[in-house]
Amino acid sequence: WIPASQINGASRTSCPYLNTAANHGFLPRNGRQISIAQFDQSIIDSINFHPDFAHAITMAMLGKLGVLVNNTEQDASLRLDLEQTNVHDKTEHDASISRFDLSQGNNKNVQTELVQDLLDDTLPMAYNYLNTSSVGRTRVRRERESLKLGNPPLPSIFFSGAQGEAGLLLTVMSDGSSPITSQNADFRRAPKERIKSWLVNERFPTEQGFKRS
Length: 213
Prior knowledge:
It is a single chain. It contains eight helices and two strands. The protein is mostly helical. It is 43% helix and 2% strand. The chain has a two-stranded antiparallel ribbon. The longest helix has 17 residues, at 132-148. This is Cloroperoxidase. Its cofactor is heme b. Keywords: Heme, Iron, Metal-binding, Oxidoreductase, Peroxidase. Belongs to the chloroperoxidase family.
């Protein structure tokens, strides 16, 4: 792991995962000139998503940016810097759990106070992990906070996308709790120390027990 601050000319974005992948070398460490294949492979190698799912995530991101031409030869030559993936109301949205809204001026860099609010949304607060209830509570709170700033409600595509991001947060950082039952929707838990290390430092929290699924 090498933080972006130690890499000359590093390009980074608002997505914690992409920044983390670059910091660990799953993507080019400077975050520049990244191909479709490199985006796909980084997801496969770092968090072990199925290749089809990894490719679907990449193509959805690029489709929102409007950069795909649906021509195999031209798409193969496509290269993007990470900062180019940070486009408001396309790939980036308000009411993030770790970033300010665009109207607040800085929607790219992590805000430690927002991460702490995420960790404090557990009931009781003494829990040392996040679960589906706490992350759902965070999503509702952040959307209300965004509305209070005068921003419009999240469009449906970002509403569902934000839910997906929250679900992936628990999936990727899970502590491997027991299988789900009809009586227990909070089976999947993510230790707070893992979440904090990942979101604040943009580093896979191996020292806190994180392992690729």
